Each structure stands twice: as structure tokens, then as C-alpha cells.
Amino acid sequence: MRMHDWVDYMHMVKTDGRWMIVNVLWELSPEAKKRYGIPEEL
What we know:
Layout: E1 6-15, E2 18-28, H1 30-36
Antiparallel strand pairs: 1-2
């Protein structure tokens, strides 16, 4: 899921016909890194 300043990576599982979020990882978007002066490789 792409948000304003970050990207969420969601691990999801479907059990008994229901989707559930198992884990969420996020990182700043490349545009936000440039805006805040953070190197791309971090």
C-alpha cells in the first residue's frame, strides 16, 4: 500500500474465507528520502 511518505508491505493470510493481516513492514518512499535528505540505500 503506498501512502504519502512511506510504503507498507503487508503479509496477509486467508483463513476460513477471511483475510487477516499477519505482519506489516514499512519504509520511506524514495521521494520522502530525497525530501528529508536520507540516502536511498538506507
